[in-house]
Amino acid sequence: METKTEIWKDIEGYEGKYEVSNLGRVRSISRNTICDSDHRRSHYVRSLDGKILKQSMTNDGYFRVSLYDKDNKLKNGLHPPKTSTTENVTRNQ
Q: How many separate domains does the chain show?
């Protein structure tokens, strides 16, 4: 049985935040982000740990994952596993 090496590449539009692998998995990258605090009227740094993201399947057999950019939640579709490559990630707006 051959084991595939997982290769990670940045997702266009989310460079430095999210990556997709040749096996179809999506992960967030560990990073620090600056947050606003309404009640304190100040800024603070929040440390985010990277992790493999949970994917859900749509009714038509595509995997979906939620990516966040500047406090906005964006849904992104991925092709089914049998055709999944790093080029198959699309950004839906």
A: 1
